[in-house]
């Protein structure tokens, strides 16, 4: 049987029936409801109605889909990964929305929140009726979140928060922000309703990447919260880092989708673009490029599926996730750049998805841990010595 160019190694053959159904449902929805609009959103640098997008994703069961209870779908890790892959095949900004909502904000509440906090927020967030964001990164604290300057101090039974968070997806449309702050007892997590006095979110403009996504600066100026706003089980830097590992798992799958989209666009273009009297796909150099992209796309899917199976078996280590993010983002960047070259001048336009994916991947390579951070994580796993400090 001739291999399928779109899944050359037949990786998806190893999916179960429910996993295939989720893959197909998300793919159809993303292509029908989101893809026709995403180039326009990217060009304008805005999503006209992000809440409608969130409700649509919630109705499909994609928000916090890997969590159990409280209105969440409770799927396995591979199913969640497949959803991320199909969303990012359309645009990284859409997968970011789902990752931040489900793997960061909702996971923090699910893992570290009180029963009351879970009941208050998770059902509405799962439905897309409430949007969350995750306030960890700061202007001077990115790869080293332990150096954050945001502080929470006790005043009677209340908490008072002061500080600034930066590069926060969903920040200006969120109903609740999961904010991490230093206290006299170490780093703690807090649920901050975005309508409280002293909280403001400013949209970051001028982005050249991830434009079909809302990115904001959060400012906390004497934000007063009741004592029960703290996540009771979130103590220390390991709490937010565990949430980041969940989000990174989604990235491992998501960028495989972006790579596939670029490869498929290049393959179609090479078959139809004629120069020197024949399709450019008939020239050796173009075929070499297509072969390189094919290998990267299939390697990325194999890596994602392997990590998904490990996660479902309870065997996934955070260094495995670092391996996946490092390898798959690199592969996706190579594929996007090569696909852009196959398209020639047409590749820089929004008529084709490759340049949009190419610049989006520059952001994906940076957030949730830079390439250097994941390389050092692997180095520590190999040698037993940390190079971070």
Automatic annotation (TrEMBL):
InterPro entries: Acyl-CoA_DH_CS, Acyl-CoA_Oxase/DH_mid-dom, Acyl-CoA_Oxase/DH_mid-dom_sf, AcylCo_DH-like_C, AcylCo_DH/oxidase_C, AcylCoA_DH/ox_N, AcylCoA_DH/ox_N_sf, AcylCoA_DH/oxidase_NM_dom_sf. Pfam families: Acyl-CoA_dh_1 (PF00441), Acyl-CoA_dh_M (PF02770), Acyl-CoA_dh_N (PF02771). Its EC number is 1.3.8.6. The keyword Membrane does not apply. GO terms for molecular function: fatty-acyl-CoA binding; flavin adenine dinucleotide binding; glutaryl-CoA dehydrogenase activity. Keywords: FAD, Flavoprotein, Oxidoreductase, Transit peptide. The keyword Oxidoreductase applies. Residues 17-129 form the Acyl-CoA dehydrogenase/oxidase N-terminal domain. Its cofactor is FAD. Pathway: Amino-acid metabolism; lysine degradation; Amino-acid metabolism; tryptophan metabolism. It catalyses: glutaryl-CoA + oxidized [electron-transfer flavoprotein] + 2 H(+) = (2E)-butenoyl-CoA + reduced [electron-transfer flavoprotein] + CO2. One of its GO terms (biological process) is fatty-acyl-CoA biosynthetic process. It is an enzyme of class 1 (oxidoreductase). Residues 133-223 form the Acyl-CoA oxidase/dehydrogenase middle domain. Residues 235-382 form the Acyl-CoA dehydrogenase/oxidase C-terminal domain. Belongs to the acyl-CoA dehydrogenase family. PANTHER family: GLUTARYL-COA DEHYDROGENASE, MITOCHONDRIAL (PTHR42807:SF1). This is glutaryl-CoA dehydrogenase (ETF).
């Amino acid at each position: 049987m001739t291999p399928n160019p779109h899944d050359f190694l037949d990786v998806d053959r190893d999916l179960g029936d429910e996993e295939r159904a989720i893959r197909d449902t998300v793919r159809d929805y993303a292509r029908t409801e989101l893809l026709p609009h995403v180039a326009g959103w990217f060009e304008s640098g805005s999503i006209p109605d992000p809440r409608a997008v969130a409700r649509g994703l919630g109705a499909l069961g994609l928000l916090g889909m890997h969590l159990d209870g409280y209105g969440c779908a409770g799927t396995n890790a591979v199913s969640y990964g497949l959803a991320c892959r199909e969303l990012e095949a359309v645009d990284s900004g859409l997968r970011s929305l789902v990752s931040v909502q489900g793997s960061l904000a909702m996971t923090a509440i699910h893992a570290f929140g009180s029963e009351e906090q879970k009941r208050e927020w998770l059902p509405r967030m799962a439905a897309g009726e409430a949007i969350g964001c995750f306030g960890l990164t700061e202007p001077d604290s990115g790869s080293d979140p332990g150096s954050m300057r945001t502080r929470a101090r006790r005043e009677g039974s209340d908490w008072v928060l002061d500080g600034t968070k930066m590069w926060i997806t969903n920040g200006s449309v969120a109903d609740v922000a999961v904010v991490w702050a230093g206290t006299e007892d170490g780093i703690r997590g807090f649920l901050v309703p975005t309508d409280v006095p002293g909280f403001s979110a400013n949209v970051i403009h001028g982005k050249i990447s991830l434009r079909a996504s809302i990115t904001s600066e959060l400012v906390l100026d004497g934000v007063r919260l009741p004592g029960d706003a703290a996540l009771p089980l979130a103590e220390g830097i390991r709490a937010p880092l565990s949430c980041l590992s969940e989000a990174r798992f989604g990235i491992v799958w998501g960028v495989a989708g972006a790579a596939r989209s670029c490869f498929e666009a290049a393959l179609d273009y090479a078959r139809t673009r004629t120069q020197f009297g024949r399709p450019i796909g008939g020239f050796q150099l173009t075929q070499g490029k297509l072969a390189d992209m094919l290998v990267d796309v299939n390697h990325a899917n194999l890596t994602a599926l392997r990590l998904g199976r490990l996660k479902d078996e309870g065997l996934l280590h955070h260094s495995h996730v670092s391996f996946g993010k490092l390898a798959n983002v690199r592969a996706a960047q190579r594929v996007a750049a090569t696909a852009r070259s196959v398209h020639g001048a047409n590749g820089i336009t929004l008529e084709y998805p490759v340049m949009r994916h190419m610049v989006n991947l520059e952001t994906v390579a940076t957030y949730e841990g830079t390439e250097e951070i994941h390389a050092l994580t692997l180095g520590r796993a190999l040698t037993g010595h940390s190079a971070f400090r």
